[in-house]
Amino acid sequence: MSQPRDTSLVHDALSKAPQATLMFWLVKICATTVGETGGDAVSMTLKAGYLVATLIFLGFFVVTMTGQVIARRYYPLSYWLVVVATTTVGTTTSDFIDRTLHMGYVLSSAMLLALVIGVLVVWRLTTGRIAADRITSRTDEVFYWLTILVSNTLGTALGDFSSETIPDLMGKIAQAPAGGWDPWGFELAAVVFAALIGLVAVLHLLKLFPQAVLFWAAYILTRPLGATLGDTLTKPHVQGGLAFGRIAATVIITVAMVVLVLLSPKLRRPADVEAAPA
Question: What is the pTM of this model?
Answer without folding.
Answer: 0.83
